[in-house]
Write a structure and sequence with these properties.
Helix content is about 30%, strand content about 30%. It contains 3 helices and 5 strands; from the N terminus they run βααββββα.
Length: about 100
């Protein structure tokens, strides 16, 4: 999934839903476009369109969980964040353990 020059699809609906857990738009876009963000298909919630899960760190270093879907707009792909929240301690521990195990292989 190409992250080089990503555009985002924001409106009142997804902006409010994503920000209700304390994240800013800047933090969400940062997680989706920077560094070592881990992105995988969301196979459990593959309703009418493909969805992806992104796990990364905010500019402040906190782990963030973002669900988004790519959409076509005017012959280009934009990413529409659906939900975003900070991760809980147990989720972070599980994620770090899985990443560590994958790196040891």
């Amino acid at each position: 999934m190409e992250r080089g020059t990503v555009s985002f699809d924001w409106d009142d609906g997804n902006r409010e839903k994503c920000q209700k857990h304390g994240l800013s738009i800047v933090e969400i876009e940062y997680v989706l476009t920077h560094g070592e963000t881990f992105i995988v298909p969301d196979v459990k919630n593959f309703e009418d369109e493909p969805r992806f899960i992104a796990i990364g760190r905010s500019p402040g270093g906190r782990y963030v969980f973002v669900v988004f879907t790519p959409r076509r707009r005017n012959d280009r792909t934009v990413w529409r964040p659906i939900s975003a929240r900070y991760m809980h301690k147990k989720e972070i521990a599980r994620y770090e353990k899985e990443i560590s195990s994958a790196q040891d292989r």
